């Protein structure tokens, strides 16, 4: 389910961005129709402490196993504790399993989130971060009252100071406790702009908690975290490389590069976060808009506008950039599967297009 598919449009942090949309009211979203505002704060605190106590007991064996694995691979410093801003902008220390080289991480994240290609993870860090299992110690933040089970994700003061200068009403998120899980965290990707996240979170902050829907969201996120952990583990056991995964994604999603001016398309052989490879070369040079078309099944599709930079002389391999934040979100969610709760994938590759549509894009010039 895409939270960028319906509703009102608004601009990104760097200026107006077309087709970036916030969702309709959460009250209209069956199954996730819950906000962050508790009707009775004391009852809400008892509810959070009770539920998280049960979850901690259930997950204690897994957390102990992760702790032992970290102890054996990176020494005794297995827990990261760092300051975050909580309700009413009161600081607290968030807990995570340590997954990064501390010195390098401090330099890279002083005024921004960690870049995707930083490569500063500890031996188990990449697996834990990809599966989101590094967040499990935050269950104890919920138990001691720093956080709730569901709410806007906590941020560092340095990030908040930057974002409040460019995101209207950014500080509204501090009207409630941050959450172990949140809607934007579950359905959006790390690359989704802070402006999009803030606008959506602000809608939820003004909506009351629905406990049944909140437990449903928490359960859905928990299930998908365990599913992702299993998937990441299998990838490593099978020795799947990044280029193999890029090919698999392209086949699963029936990706095409579409020329908006001529209507001609070309099948995509592989796509990752930075590179796109076509099944057949296209004529160079070209100057007009292109789209990556993503087939979701049942006649549904998504599109992301891109610009290409050739990486070879035959016109088959390119670096690409998305022209809108909405386009980047679309590729990260539907193709790269970077959201915690990913979309349903088609069970088979879509049927091939007619020959005149699948032909090389000779008209691009």
Produce a short descriptive summary:
By secondary structure, the protein is of the alpha+beta class. It has helices at 41-74, 102-108, 125-131, 138-143, 157-166, 183-187, 194-205, 211-238, 242-253, 325-335, 355-358, and strands at residues 79-85, 91-97, 148-150, 179-181, 256-259, 265-271, 275-278, 290-297, 300-310, 317-322.
Q: Averaged pLDDT, please?
A: 79
Low-confidence spans: 1-32, 349-365
Please tally the helical runs, counting DSSP H or I stretches of 4 or more residues. Answer: 11
- CA radius of gyration is 22 Å
Strand order of the largest sheet: 5-6-7-10-9-8
Based on CA inertia axes, which overall geometry fits?
globular
The rounded distance between the terminal residues' Cα atoms is 37 Å
Please give the oligomerization state of what you see.
single chain
Q: What's the SSE pattern?
A: HEEHHHEHEHHHHEEEEEEHH
For the largest beta-sheet, the strand count, sense and barrel status come to: 6 strands, antiparallel, barrel
- Strand segment tally: 10
Q: Pairing-aware structural class of the strands and helices?
A: alpha+beta
Question: Can you offer a commentary on this structure?
Answer:
The protein is α+β, with helices and mostly antiparallel strands and 365 residues long. It has helices spanning 41-74, 102-108, 125-131, 138-143, 157-166, 183-187, 194-205, 211-238, 242-253, 325-335, 355-358; strands at 79-85, 91-97, 148-150, 179-181, 256-259, 265-271, 275-278, 290-297, 300-310, 317-322. A 6-stranded antiparallel barrel has the order 5-6-7-10-9-8. A hairpin with a 3-residue loop joins strand 6 and strand 7 (275-278). Helix 3 packs antiparallel against helix 8. The longest helix is centred in the N-terminal third of the chain and has 34 residues, at 41-74. The chain is globular. The two termini are 37 Å apart.
């Amino acid at each position: 389910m895409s939270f960028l598919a319906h509703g009102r449009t608004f601009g990104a942090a760097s200026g107006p961005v077309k087709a970036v949309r916030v969702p309709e009211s959460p009250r209209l979203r069956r199954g996730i129709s819950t906000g962050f505002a508790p009707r009775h704060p004391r009852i809400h605190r008892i509810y959070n402490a009770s539920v998280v106590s049960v979850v901690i007991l259930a997950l204690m064996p897994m957390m102990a196993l992760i702790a032992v694995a970290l102890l054996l691979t990176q020494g005794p410093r297995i827990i990261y504790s760092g300051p975050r801003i909580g309700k009413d902008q009161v600081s607290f220390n968030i807990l995570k399993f340590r997954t990064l080289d501390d010195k390098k991480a401090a330099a890279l994240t002083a005024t921004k989130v960690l870049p995707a290609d930083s490569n500063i993870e500890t031996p188990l860090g990449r697996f834990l971060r990809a599966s989101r299992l590094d967040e499990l110690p935050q269950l104890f933040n919920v138990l001691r009252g720093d956080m709730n089970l569901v709410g806007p994700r906590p941020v560092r003061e340095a990030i908040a100071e930057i974002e409040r200068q460019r995101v209207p009403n950014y500080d509204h998120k501090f009207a409630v406790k941050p959450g172990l899980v949140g809607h934007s965290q579950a359905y959006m990707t790390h690359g989704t702009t802070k402006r999009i996240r803030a606008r959506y979170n602000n809608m939820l902050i003004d909506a009351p908690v629905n406990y049944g829907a909140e437990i449903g969201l928490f359960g859905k996120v928990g299930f998908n975290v365990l599913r992702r952990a299993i998937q990441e583990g299998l990838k490593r056991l099978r020795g799947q490389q990044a280029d193999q995964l890029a090919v698999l994604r392209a086949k699963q999603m029936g990706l095409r590069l579409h020329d908006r001016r001529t209507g001609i398309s070309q099948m995509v052989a592989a796509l990752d976060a930075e590179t796109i490879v076509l099944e057949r070369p296209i004529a160079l040079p070209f100057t007009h808009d292109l789209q990556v078309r993503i087939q979701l099944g049942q006649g549904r599709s998504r599109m992301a506008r891109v610009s290409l930079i050739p990486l070879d002389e035959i016109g088959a391999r390119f670096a690409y950039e998305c022209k809108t934040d909405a386009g980047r979100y679309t590729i990260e969610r539907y193709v790269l599967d970077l959201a915690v709760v990913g979309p349903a994938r088609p069970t088979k590759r879509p049927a091939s297009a007619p020959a005149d549509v699948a032909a090389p894009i000779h008209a691009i010039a």
